[in-house]
TrEMBL record:
InterPro entries, alphabetized: Pirin, Pirin_C_dom, RmlC-like_jellyroll, RmlC_Cupin_sf
Source organism: Linnemannia hyalina
Cross-referenced Gene3D superfamilies: Jelly Rolls
Protein name: Pirin C-terminal domain-containing protein
PANTHER family (UniProt xref): PIRIN, PIRIN-RELATED
Family annotation (SUPFAM superfamilies): RmlC-like cupins
Record domain Pirin C-terminal: where: 70-151
Domain of life: Eukaryota
Lineage: Eukaryota, Fungi, Fungi incertae sedis, Mucoromycota, Mortierellomycotina
Length: 162
């Protein structure tokens, strides 16, 4: 059969560990297609998909029982943006392509493609995100920590390899 079209797909699925009072609620899977995701354009050549949280007066339709931020950034080269995150939130960045520089006023960390940066809970609330010579695409996910152990799931093939 001939190929009609080919597309590069990226998907990131997160499971949220709910607070104890919501543990026995019925599960709610919510799927958003790209066309359904609200977009903020705070600067030229900067697009932020607002998946969960409120940003630039955009409030997405996704429902969360625990407060979380889920933002997808696409920044062209030589851009800088700052984002305030509640001090109590745990946070991480997942870089899909190219390189971004993420940190605060005193220190930047080079975040390369296909890497995840997990931030310490040091009370810093403002994070600076910068691109230099190339564009970058990454997500920022943050939320109230559950203070429970993190379990990482890995899918194995039939022979036991990853």
């Amino acid at each position: 059969m001939p190929v009609k079209s080919q597309t590069h797909a990226q998907e990131l699925q997160r499971w949220i560990n709910l607070p104890q009072e919501h543990k026995m609620y019925e599960p709610q899977y919510q799927e958003l297609l790209d066309a359904q995701i609200l977009r903020a354009r705070p600067k030229d050549e900067l697009v932020v998909k607002v998946i969960a949280d409120e940003l630039y007066s955009l409030k997405p339709q996704i429902y969360t029982r625990a407060p979380i931020m889920y933002l997808d950034f696409k920044m062209s080269s030589t851009q800088t943006i700052t984002r305030t995150i509640p001090e109590t939130y745990s946070r991480f960045f997942r870089v899909f392509n190219r390189t971004a520089y993420i940190g605060d006023l005193g220190h930047d960390t080079e975040a390369e493609a296909h890497r995840t940066l997990i931030f310490s809970e040091d009370g810093t609330s403002t994070i600076r995100i910068q691109t230099k010579d190339e564009e970058a695409n990454f997500v920022m996910i943050a939320g109230e920590p559950s203070k429970k152990p993190v379990v990482r799931l890995v899918r194995c093939n039939k022979r036991g390899g990853v």
